[in-house]
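ugh ok so i messed up the first submission bc i forgot one of the chains. this is the corrected input, ALL of the components this time, i swear. 590 residues overall. if the numbers dont match what u have on ur side tell me asap before i send this to the collaborators (the ones from the other lab, u know who)
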Amino acid sequence: MDRIQIQELEKQAKEIRRLTIQAFGSLGEGHVGGALSIVEILTLLYYRYMQIDPEDPKKEDRDRLVLSKGHAGPALYATLALRGYFPADWLETLNRGGTRLPSHCDMNLTPGIDMTTGSLGQGISTAIGLALGNRLNRIDRNVYLIIGDGESDEGQIWEGAMAAPHYALSNLIAFTDFNRMQIGGYTDEIMSLGDLDAKWKAFGWFTQHVDGHNFEALAQAIEAAQKEQERPSMIILDTIKGKGASYAEGDVANHYMPVSQEQTKEALEKLERN
Amino acid sequence: MNKEMRVVYAETLIELAEENEDIVLLEADLMKANSTKIFKDRFPERTFDVGVAEANMVGIAAGLSATGKIPFAGSFGCFAARRAYDQFFISANYARLNVKLVGSFPGIAGALNGGTHMPFEDLGLMRNIPRLVVMEPCDGLSLKRFMEIAASYKGSCYIRLHPRAVPPIYDERESFEIGKGKVLKEGTDVTIIATGAVLVPEALKAHDMLSQEGISAAVIDMPTIKPIDEGLIVDYAKKTNAVVTCENHQIVNGLGSAVSEVLSEQYPTLLRRVGVNEEFGEVGTLEYLQQRYRLTAAEIVTKAKEIINLKRECHS
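and heres the new structure output, hopefully the right one now
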């Protein structure tokens, strides 16, 4: 990637953040932290790597994303709106009765959402099913999966961790949003994950660990994962929960938080200046 | 020779898979008990034994169905229904996907595995899932037909699979549909509504025993507990004004509850439920447990007479 491409991605990421912060501001509360920590990976996937057609969201021959940490849906909704899956003014309806953009991802409500998620841990299994289905259907497309670090407390994550290498699912590329915070506090205090890299490696995944906000590092890792022919990939992303929202970043209580109009205004101004 | 129902399950799945390349099988290390190894031998690339991980199995099945596959995912009913309930609820049903979940060795069929392996509550759990189709076929032919129906039905199903060989109730000409009960015997004094391979034969025996005492009992097989055949239940309640339900399950939240709900709202009728009452399972042969939990023709007869007497008292 050259400098101009990176600048373009940074611009798109900023726009996704802006729309996400606006949507939370409009609602007055939300899952701010874990949405804003995955903006860079969403930007790269939806603008550079995923083979998709916003005009034909259910196209059989497409790359798919399972956002297993379904509460981060608002960041994905902003991404999908910018990519043209639906009008951006839908974002103002987030979590309101009758909306097509619910708190957690719903494949039957939102164009571009590939799997319904929300009960943590389940996305790894459905992603494995999608990857197996693609293989049976001889569809040479990838399944991308984003799990949370808090979510990694769920036993089902490790059931899936064992199964994907068993089936040699090199068409499955997973990310852990390793922002080191969960609902109740820091992951090290609530339930320490230990050596996460060693765990995924030991389960048989092609494991990489990069700065989740650095496009160049992310792109290299994704391209290496795409080249892998035998194993599923896990890319552990060092991220900052609440990244880019001045009222949230650094606050361990930012998983789900109230957001005032003043905070939103200030956050958007600071985002613009950066 | 009369086949074990688990063998009928595996053979039917092979037949379906020969016709439709989207049919796939998932197991959680119980291929031996479920007799599905013959499917794996025929379609190794369409068989996924995920090991002892039922939650993962159901989630993978949901993902497969999102690519157009038609997964049959089986485990003992206790694990399929209880252990993977949230996965079946959210990843399969809330997501409106297409998973055929098979709970084998239901109720006392858990037998020598004992109380930990004896689901008396799976029908109740499954009945609570919106729009799910819940089936309990009572013999080999009806199992085969309902598997064919499930494979072509667009949406998730729960199939309660009794593993053993049981006497045939139906012949090849019989056709079935979701939400329709089958009248096996006509009768005017009491209606016995039963489900599954343990209780439908007992209901027929009870019919004969009652007949010898001059009591005319209608017998209905209710192979889909949800949606349930409301029209048939109400028709026979009107005809006999006394109903006995029979199930290899808790008397709460299963067939007895479903029938009671229909009648309470549409035609209040005196009713008794044969089934397990506020008890956990325990170890023993199926024959022992059938006596132990009174899932027998004798119990059905007792309940039928009890309710007929009550009906007479009410009407005199």
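quick check: The first strand of chain B starts at residue 23 and ends at 27. that seems consistent at least. The CA atoms of residues 141 and 171 of chain B lie 7 Å apart.
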